[in-house]
Amino acid sequence: MEPALRGILEKVIDDELSDDKLESNYRIFMNFKTRGLIESVPSAMFGRIYTRTYNAWLEYKANDGKPVSRPEATEFGRIFETRAVEIRSKIMAVASL
Questions:
Q1: Do 95 and 42 form a contact (C-beta atoms < 8 A)?
Q2: Which of 23, 29, 68, 86 could form a disulfide with 41 if both were Cys (CB 3.0 to 4.6 A apart)?
Q3: DSSP 3-state assignment of 35?
Q4: pLDDT tens-digit series, residues 35-79
Q5: Residues 6+ away with beta carbon under 8 Å from 39
């Protein structure tokens, strides 16, 4: 994976883990839970971060004109897996406030 793309993905995750963004998303998803639209706020928040990261990857690939390769897809998965514990921890910290 190109270093620029890796940097973009890491930045998307970092942005999603900012205190302001986490707190805002927690309130939004808590409202959805209260209305019976979702069952788990932490799971919805985790899914949002994954989706934002995945979409950033796809957008980059759509603009660079090169097809997605299997090794690149594997590396994308590893990047997210590496950050998954941190993501979950920060989500749970916001949920416990």
A1: yes
A2: 29
A3: coil
A4: 999 999 999 999 999 999 999 999 999 998 888 889 999 999 999
A5: 33
Distance CA 37, CA 41 (A): 10
- Tell me how far apart the alpha carbons of residues 9 and 3 are, in angstroms, rounded to a whole number: 10
The pTM assigned to this predicted structure is: 0.91
C-alpha–C-alpha distance, residues 69 and 72, integer Å: 5
88-92 contacts at long range (C-beta below 8 A, 24 or more positions apart): 88/42, 88/46, 90/17, 90/22, 91/22, 91/26, 91/42, 91/45, 91/46, 92/42
Contact yes or no for 15/21 (Cβ under 8 A): yes
